[in-house]
TrEMBL record:
It comes from Hyaloscypha bicolor E. Residues 1-133 form the Heterokaryon incompatibility domain. This is Heterokaryon incompatibility. It comes from the Eukaryota. InterPro entries: HET (IPR010730), HetReg/Transcr_Mod (IPR052895).
Length: 137
């Protein structure tokens, strides 16, 4: 299986998406993260906390949170969705880690470093769970 690391965003705002013929309500950030990751997801199942854990069942949620380190460690790949670029600086930052990393690996131009720096300022990096989601991947 693969896993998705993303920032939930506004939990009070909801959008409806269709997964395997079922309508499911998710946050706008999750909807965008799934749409962005879809072209790179292989044929393996995708583990997403908001979809795989019953968020309304506190016992299940607490039990699953204890397993999250193992979930991310054992995933064959973790997709990290940083969020949408800043609308005022759309040429800075990026919603995909791969683009930021390839900018450094391929060219190391000043603009690439600016893009990387802007990407690290996105709210995604302020999340408590980032250490286990990315660090254990």
């Amino acid at each position: 299986y693969e896993a998705l690391s993303y920032r939930w965003g506004d939990e009070k705002s909801e959008v409806t998406i269709m997964i395997e013929g079922q309508l499911i309500t998710v946050t706008p950030n999750l909807s965008m993260a799934l749409a962005d990751a879809q072209p790179t997801i292989k044929d393996s199942p995708l583990w997403v906390d908001a979809l795989c854990i019953d968020q309304h069942n506190i016992l299940e949620r607490n039990h699953q949170v204890q397993k999250m380190a193992t979930i991310y460690r054992k995933a064959s790949r973790v997709h990290a969705w940083l969020g949408m670029p800043d609308k005022q600086n759309s040429n800075k930052g990026d919603s995909r880690v791969e683009t930021l990393l390839s900018a450094i690996q391929e060219r190391q131009y000043v603009a690439d470093w600016i893009s990387l720096a802007a990407g690290t300022e996105l709210p995604y990096w302020n999340r408590l769970w980032i250490v286990q989601e990315i660090g254990l991947a």
